[in-house]
Amino acid sequence: MTKLKNIKVVVSDLDGTLLNPQHRISDYTKSIFQELHNQNYLIVVATGRHHLDAMAIVATLEVPVYLVSSNGARIHSPEKEELFAFDLKSDVVKAALNVDIDPEITVVLFKENVWQTNRVNEKLNAFQAELKYRPELVDYKTLEDFGAIKIFFSHENHEKLVALKDAVLANSSSDLHHAFSLPTCLEFMDKSVDKAVSIQRVLEKEGFSLEEAVSFGDGFNDVQMLSATGKGLIMGNAPALLKETLPELEVIKTNAEDGVAKYIASKILNKELAVS
């Protein structure tokens, strides 16, 4: 059994990665992360989720965790102190939404304490076991303040989102970059914001380098993070296109199989895995 050398930091995405298909952290995963903490590894969670939503999830690990949220637009310390914040200006968001948007597409503006949306989407609500970060129905035609942490669109038809992405970028390409966190989820952030940049801020604060970090992810909002760290691992449940985009990276077990925890146990903690 080969143990990874020089790894001091573990970075993980949440949905489709650290969380199982029921959007929860399993007891096994929790036990492995507690052992990581006991052995003095730095733990960073990097997610597209809003920080209020993500904080409730990472708290279940019961270990100190740095939180990079909204794809890098927020950084919080293990004590929940805000270390970095970046918001999109109102006129930038307004320009991005000034395109022809199919009324069946869910539109969300991530605000500091609420998410403003054009329609009720029960599938999105299901991602929160408890509503720590509440939706607010709004009419974007009458909204005055468009300032937001990020812009989010959701629809089951991926091609509709691709067409919308092209339209938004045609209006706002100088200000925004995009990522498909899932084929059904399209997100826009400021060009200066991504997970890798914010992870590097955390590591510099703690005296580590990206080369000393291992990262786990399953979405296209993880590409920079997976490429920047010393070792990047792609979840088995990730889209085939992500695996093709990063063919040099190893693919591990799925989130339903506790893929992150099992990899950490075997390759970082050097534990024998039970045969299932």
Automatic annotation (TrEMBL):
<dbReference type="InterPro" id="IPR023214">
    <property type="entry name" value="HAD_sf"/>
</dbReference>
<keyword id="KW-0479">Metal-binding</keyword>
<dbReference type="GO" id="GO:0033883">
    <property type="term" value="F:pyridoxal phosphatase activity"/>
</dbReference>
<dbReference type="Pfam" id="PF08282">
    <property type="entry name" value="Hydrolase_3"/>
</dbReference>
<protein>
    <submittedName>
        <fullName>Pyridoxal phosphate phosphatase YigL</fullName>
        <ecNumber>3.1.3.74</ecNumber>
    </submittedName>
</protein>
<keyword id="KW-0460">Magnesium</keyword>
<dbReference type="InterPro" id="IPR036412">
    <property type="entry name" value="HAD-like_sf"/>
</dbReference>
<comment type="similarity">
    <text>Belongs to the HAD-like hydrolase superfamily. Cof family.</text>
</comment>
<dbReference type="GO" id="GO:0046872">
    <property type="term" value="F:metal ion binding"/>
</dbReference>
<dbReference type="InterPro" id="IPR006379">
    <property type="entry name" value="HAD-SF_hydro_IIB"/>
</dbReference>
<keyword id="KW-0378">Hydrolase</keyword>
<dbReference type="InterPro" id="IPR000150">
    <property type="entry name" value="Cof"/>
</dbReference>
